[in-house]
Amino acid sequence: MIKLIVTDIDGTLLTEGTSEPHPQITEAVRSLIKKGITFAFASGRSYESILGVFPELEDEAVFISNNGACVTEKGQT
Fold first, then answer.
1. I want to staple 21 with a disulfide (CB 3.0 to 4.6 A). Which of 3, 17, 25, 69 is the partner?
2. Is 8 tagged catalytic?
3. Cα(55)–Cα(77) distance, integer angstroms
4. Which of 5, 8, 66, 73 is catalytic?
């Protein structure tokens, strides 16, 4: 059983040179979360920068930012 998925953003969920994910990406992440899987975005970016890409998932996903130095979930760091 999968309990956690952690993925990078740039070059993985975002095509190089783009700043917005394909709608199917957000849809797939939401689907995984609804199945009870914790989903985390990991990046060297700041929390605010990651949130700018996935604002609609702010209260549903975990955000691992600053190369792992900061973890934020549901607004709590």
1. 25
2. yes
3. 16
4. 8
Per DSSP, 28 falls in state: H
Give the burial class of 33: count Cβ atoms within 10 A of its Cβ; 0-12 exposed, 13-18 middle, 19 or more buried.
middle
Q: What is the pTM of this model?
A: 0.92
pLDDT digits (tens), the chain, 77 positions: 999 999 999 999 998 888 899 999 999 999 999 999 999 999 999 999 999 999 999 999 999 999 999 999 998 99
- Residue 27 sits at φ, ψ, to 5 deg, of -60, -45
Q: How far is CA 40 from CA 32, 71, in A?
A: 11, 9
Q: Which residues pair with residue 46 across a beta bridge? A: none
